[in-house]
Amino acid sequence: MRILITNDDGINAPGLKVLHDIARDIAGGDGEVWTVAPAFEQSGVGHCISYTHPFMVIQMDERRFAAEGSPADCVLAGLHEVMKDTRPDLVLSGVNRGNNSAENTLYSGTIGGALEASLQGLPAIALSQYYGPGNNMLDNPFEAAAKHGADTIRRILNSKPSNTPGYQTFYNVNFPPVPAADVKGTRVAPQGLRRDTSFSVEPHDSPSGRRFLWIKGGDQRAQTDAGADAAVNLDGYISVTPMRADLTAHDLLDPLKDVFA
């Protein structure tokens, strides 16, 4: 198997090394793992692409490239330049430092990389490691992802998901904020919503008197509906969420048609 990996934390991020090891396990002895990852951190860029300006791709090592762009840019570069003659069988994005459950999904560059791969017609999985008191002081905070990542990916691939003629399916996997030995199992879960919390800004004045705003994340312990991705993660389970790029509120189509009839 030929696998392309990317992330949004940057090419030198420890989570990308974890993902490379996972991908090597999945690819097997005769397989190949190719890396095209951002040269610098691109957290929070979502599905952004560098549409109005070019970006450079630099080879760092054999099958390892850094791109001056977003994760979606990296996937485009991987498919249409770096691997244009050897198209991958699978695209993996991550392992993100921090969860991409609930509303975080919509901001995530990690998700953006997997989403772009799905738009290009390829199987794709995004992987993220929830951080919390149970794992952030471990020697390897990515322990749960490192231990359970390959098996989780194999189970998804073995489910033989059928793609429709429309938007293709990709998968969002989040590992719980616990040591690997404390992972309780895996739950297929919908995307949740953390209530009464959201991203915001925090203003600060520089020594020169200029006003700057820092983007500030919401409380990652805020509750979602029971059984949703963040809820099962905080309960010690890996969450697997099938996703598509279609943002249509299908339940509102017919009522809205009646309004405009």
TrEMBL record:
Localisation per UniProt entry: Cytoplasm
Catalysis: reaction(s): a ribonucleoside 5'-phosphate + H2O = a ribonucleoside + phosphate
Pfam family, one: SurE
Principal subcellular localization: cytoplasm
A GO MF term: metal ion binding
Co-factor note (free text): Binds 1 divalent metal cation per subunit.
Cofactor: a divalent metal cation
Source superkingdom: Bacteria
Positions with a binding annotation for a divalent metal cation: 8-9, 43, 96
Location of the Survival protein SurE-like phosphatase/nucleotidase domain: 3-195
One CC-aspect GO term: cytoplasm
EC number, as in UniProt: 3.1.3.5
InterPro entries hit by this protein: SurE, SurE-like_Pase/nucleotidase, SurE-like_sf
HAMAP family with a match to the protein in the record: SurE (MF_00060)
Family, as annotated: Belongs to the SurE nucleotidase family.
Function: Nucleotidase that shows phosphatase activity on nucleoside 5'-monophosphates.
Protein name per UniProt: 5'-nucleotidase SurE
